Prior knowledge:
Chain B: It is a multi-pass membrane protein. Chain B: It comes from Vreelandella zhaodongensis (Halomonas zhaodongensis). The complex is a heterodimer of chains A (57) and B (371). By secondary structure, chain A is mainly α. Helices cover 84% and strands 0% of the residues of chain A. The radius of gyration of chain A is 14 Å and the shape is elongated. The N and C termini of chain A lie far apart (37 Å). The relative contact order of chain A is 0.13. Chain B folds into 3 domains: 22-68 and 81-111, Orthogonal Bundle (Helix Hairpins), CATH 1.10.287; 118-261, Cupredoxins -  blue copper proteins (Immunoglobulin-like, Sandwich); 263-370, Cytochrome c-like domain (Cytochrome Bc1 Complex, Chain D, domain 2), CATH 1.10.760.10. Chain B has a 5-stranded mixed β-sheet. In chain B, strands 4-10-9-6-7 form a 5-stranded mixed β-sheet. In chain B, strand 6 (188-192) and strand 7 form a beta hairpin. Chains A and B meet through loops of A and helix 3 of B.
Amino acid sequence: MWSVVKSVLAALIGVQSNVKRQQDFSSGKPLIFIVTAIVITLVFVLILVGVALVAAR
Amino acid sequence: MHLPWRWLLTITCAVSCSQAQANGWNMPVGVTDLSRDIYNLHMTIFWICVVIGLIVFGAMFYSLYRYRHAKGAKPANFHENTTVEVLWTAIPILILIGMAVPATATLKKMYDTSDADLDVMIIGQQWRWRYEYLGEDVAFNSNMSTPWEQIHGEEEHGEHYLLDVDEPLVLPINRKVRFLMTADDVIHSWWVPELAVKQDTIPGFINENWVKINEPGIYRGQCAELCGVNHGFMPVVVHAMEEEEFDSWLAERKEAQEQEAMGVDREWELDDLMARGESVYRAICSSCHQSEGQGALPAFPALANNQPMIDDFDWHLDVVINGVSGAAMPAFRSTLNPVELAAVVTYTRNAWGNDTGDVVQPALVAEKIAQ
């Protein structure tokens, strides 16, 4: 699970090593990456909303 | 050997920077706390960009020179380096966040229009600014006062060519003034660099902005949104005064405007209306209908010897008060007061050989407006 999160975070900033990419493509299902990515995107949006709320105070 | 080079670079930079300030290439520091904040923010971000530029281009040119082909340099052919890639992604993110923090703090101040001591409505019109001091019953138009002879090259340019008005916006120093900004016809933009205010005025919308001026003085600006043929001829002049001076100016202005309102009920002589009408015509009408009423076809008809206008008094008055829908002629019912309207209609009916002898009383105009 941790390696999936790490891969999604790497995708978020657009940097990933070739070895890791091969690993992700050979093992694991696409669905788990998609779901994790959606969750992490939501968390990212919430963090931005939180920062905006703090800044607007 | 490299030391003189570095010195030369430093001196060149210092000289060019102070020159930029003196020549007006850079933005002005301005005369409000906020304009100073904006200037400092601008310079902070400018120097961050300079440092990044020096590092990036320095590394590039150094590598081009040091590892040139002529010296037998061999290209590297590795595929990836995750550490470097993460670094060159993370560092820009940190720099951007570092720039966003002061930028957001300044933006927040710019948008905080609360607790104003004075509200001024700024209305853009083709092609003048109108200022209304809300709750004070003071309102006036601010027209460019540069003579057309200077614009047409028949006279030498004056000191403040295209940047002078008949009535400047008068503001007090040390008080927070809120601007409510809109337009009557098309989008204009009210811009005074020294006050760090540049705000679009949009028909049907009210934008807000504010200033708290620190130093008395005269600050000039221009319309910054292309708004038609005379876009270049609607300057902004702000006269910032000491507070007591401003209060007495406002009281004087109020009284003058009350006097003017009383003038509606009295009977006016032809000569008085003609004199008044001529100044209104010069300020308001002549930019389209031209100085001698000769017009500028096809958009702006001539008023001199305009037979339909001469024959039909009611229609003439109606056009001036309510404008012509679908044409360039705006309604002047809220821009000019009844005395000014009566004067300018009297003037146009008697000037340039129109000689109708008609005297339009302000009371009649007031009645027409009320209808």
